[in-house]
Amino acid sequence: MSDSLFSRLASYSQNPNKKSIENFTTEVLSYLINHDPAFRRAFLRHIIVDRRILRRFSPATAQPQQSFDRGIVDLVVSGRHSSILVEVKIAAAETLTKIRGKGWVPQIKKYVAYREGDVAYLTTRRVPPPEIDSRNPRFLGHFFFDDLHRRLIKARLSVTGQLFVKFMEENGMESQEPFTSADVRGAQHAFRFARKCETAIDEIVSEIQPWFKKWFHTRADFTRGKFSPIVGSAYAYANVRWRGLDNIEISICIWPEAGELVFGVSVGVSRSNMKKVNRFLAWDEDNRDFYTRHPISGQADSKKMIPQIRKDLKQLRGGLSRAF
User: Cα torsion at 67, 71, 75, 76 (round to 10°)?
Assistant: First the structure.
């Protein structure tokens, strides 16, 4: 097949009902790794945490859509004596492949079984983690486009690299910008930066989801971040069951309050059950909700909020265990 980026892109389906965004993204990633040194450095540092492994990929080249024993790998990055098999997912979960004698096998586990190199999973933020033990020595990890975007906006990219950054921003792969001092001062007008609030909620949820499911013994997923102009807040919620309680609505929220911008965890139950649980927590109360609230300072982003949200959820689990 042609090495020309444009020729390869033109080979994909022109069906207007079929979006080939993953194939498009993979082709451009390959091109930029091969032709843009600044992009290549940022990309490799993103998916290779171990500096000893990183040294094996100087120089590095990439090829998209490579065939192996039982399938095609989205992107293969090759170093001097090593390779990395990269699976790219955009707003889609890991798929399963039926292999004779082995049943249904998840993609990442199948890539590892090829024994052709280490394996990386590169996705948008809300894609669930792959079905593989994270301690597997051949699995480099689950990496996110928004973290890559954060690296790329600081790099001195080629014109093509800069265009790809714009493409990421137009297709939900951008990083969250920190809340500025102006945001905090204008918290009562939070709807002016609704998108920033929704993105922050999505990034928080993506990080805490695995712990949340384990702590609350649930398969429930949080919704995507949503901004409500009626109440002037952004939130994502999950409905879970707890022994003695039919339904608990747990939300992660960002909202303006008394001239501040705050974030926290909110819990919705009946008023009588709220009293039973909250006597062990002493959280703020409002009608049938009880909640935490923590101020957001200028230049804060979701990464600085995640430890506090984890602490709140762990405290909530303790309160529920003591009450029921």
Answer: -60
Q: What is the pLDDT of residues 126-182, one digit of tens each?
A: 788 888 888 899 999 999 999 999 999 999 999 999 999 998 988 888 887 666 666
Ranges under pLDDT 50 in the chain: 1, 15-18
Q: Containing H/E element for 123?
A: strand 118-123
How far is residue 227's CA from residue 254's CA, in Å, rounded to a whole number? 9
Q: Are 265 and 211 in contact (CB under 8 A)?
A: no
Q: Domain 181-323 classified CATH 3.30.200?
A: no
- Please report, as a single letter, which amino acid is at residue 117: G
Q: Which two structure tokens, joined as six digits, stand for 209?
A: 């989801």
**Cβ atoms 71, 108 nearer than 8 A:** no
Q: Against a cut of 0.85, is the pTM above it?
A: no
Report the distance separating Cα 292 and Cα 265, nearest Å. 5
Ramachandran angles phi, psi of 17, nearest 5°: -90, 0
Contact 140, 85 (CB under 8 A): no
Calpha distance 263→242 (Å, rounded): 24
CA dihedral 292, 296, 302, 305 (to 10 degrees): -40
298 beta partners: none
Helix (H) or strand (E) holding 308: helix 302-323
